[in-house]
Design a protein that fits this description.
This protein is mainly α and 153 residues long. The protein contains seven helices and no strands. The chain has helices spanning 2-13, 17-38, 61-69, 77-98, 101-104, 109-131, 135-138. The protein is extended and about 65 Å long. The termini are far apart. Residues 49-53 have low confidence and may be disordered.
Length: 153
């Protein structure tokens, strides 16, 4: 059992797969911090970071279009970025696992890494745009003014 676990850890941390694993570890750290903040556990003192991305109003046209493509105007940025990185990690893991050894451990490893990173990023952006579309209804703002929300008024 331990041999399989050690082999798995070795596979996800070696070569260009380590870059994907690093970003996945950052996402896991962010979500652990969010969960600890939900329970108001004070590990980091009184550090407050204020700032919310309200949309893509002041951004350039290409970045605004990219954020709208990923549904960041309807879904929180943390959820969207987490989905992109998770999908990148899964795709990269399967590529790393099934790619021939002469690319994973040889001379071509240095050239394949950036190409695979960009390829997994592009594929995961398309997958995330498709999978986060239904989440826009969950995160929609349903506030009303006055007594419009009361039944029978």
């Amino acid at each position: 059992m331990w041999q399989e676990f050690v082999a798995f850890l070795s596979e996800i941390t070696t070569g260009w797969m380590g870059v994907h694993t690093f970003f996945m570890a950052v996402v896991c750290f962010i979500w652990i911090t969010i969960i600890l903040g939900m329970f108001d556990i004070d590990f980091f003192g009184d550090i407050e970071i204020d700032g919310v991305a309200e949309g893509a109003d002041g951004l350039s046209g290409a970045l605004s279009a990219f954020m709208a493509f990923l549904n960041m105007d309807k879904v929180p940025i943390v959820v969207t970025i987490s989905a992109v990185i998770f999908k990148m990690w899964v795709i990269a893991f399967y590529i790393h696992h099934y790619l021939p050894d002469f690319i994973n451990n040889g001379f071509l490893d240095h050239f394949a890494g950036p190409a695979i990173f960009m390829g997994t990023f592009i594929i995961s952006c398309f997958l995330t745009a498709y999978t986060t579309r239904p989440l826009g209804k969950i995160f929609a703002d349903h506030t009303t003014n006055g007594q419009e929300h009361l039944v029978g008024m």
